[in-house]
TrEMBL record:
It comes from Candidatus Doriopsillibacter californiensis. SUPFAM superfamilies: N-utilization substance G protein NusG, N-terminal domain (SSF82679), Translation proteins SH3-like domain (SSF50104). It comes from the Bacteria. This is Transcription termination/antitermination protein NusG. Belongs to the NusG family. Keywords: Transcription, Transcription antitermination, Transcription regulation, Transcription termination. The lineage of its organism: Bacteria, Pseudomonadati, Pseudomonadota, Gammaproteobacteria, Candidatus Tethybacterales. PROSITE patterns: NUSG. Participates in transcription elongation, termination and antitermination. NCBIfam families: nusG.
């Protein structure tokens, strides 16, 4: 009977609001519950869009995952009462987005395509570099010929992990190009 119902009901994409910071555990819990209730045929993908980021702090590089849509999961599913109840009764799920909570509206295909494209771009381009520096920040140079000088960040090149700092030398503002690891925020 499940095979017949599977062919009759079409799967569509829905957005679900979840508690921020619990997206991963809600996704895992939801997948477990789908298996426990034998509703796998009514669900497709349970998507948590993320991108890899490379953070540089105090000269150390750290790979992390950043959620593209914090507080949301995207589900490909058949909107039948059993599936609706399963999702709504999952711990830390706030509810469906768009439409009414009792009768959610499916996401437009162009929205889903955009989300998939963002994830694919993240994979193809490699990790996004996140710098802790911004234009106008006050920094202290900790190594090199200008060690112990203070200055203001003039520009940031996150792709190359470099920044330009304006330093006062002999009473004149001089641009100095440095690596992220060569400076500390004041």
């Amino acid at each position: 009977m499940n095979d017949i119902a599977e062919n009759i009901v079409e799967k569509k994409w829905y957005a679900v609001q979840v508690l921020v910071g619990y997206e991963k555990s809600v996704r895992e819990n939801l997948l477990e519950r789908i298996d426990q209730h034998d509703l796998g045929g009514y669900f497709g993908d349970v998507l948590l869009p993320v991108e890899n980021t490379l953070e540089i702090r105090q000269g150390k590089k750290k790979m992390t995952e950043r959620k593209l849509y914090p507080g949301y999961l995207f589900l490909e599913m058949c909107m039948i009462p059993e599936c609706w109840h399963l999702v709504r009764k999952t711990r830390r799920v706030g509810g469906f987005i768009s439409g009414t909570n009792e009768e959610p509206a499916a996401l437009a295909l162009d929205v889903v395509s955009k989300i998939h494209r963002q994830m694919q771009d993240s994979i193809e381009k490699g990790p996004v570099i996140r710098a802790q520096f911004a234009t106008g920040d006050q920094v202290r140079i900790k190594e090199g010929p200008f060690s112990d000088f203070s200055g203001t960040v003039d520009s940031v090149n996150a792709e190359r992990s470099r920044l330009t700092v304006m330093v006062m030398v002999f009473g004149r503002s001089t641009p100095v190009e440095l690596d992220f690891g060569q400076v500390d925020k004041i």
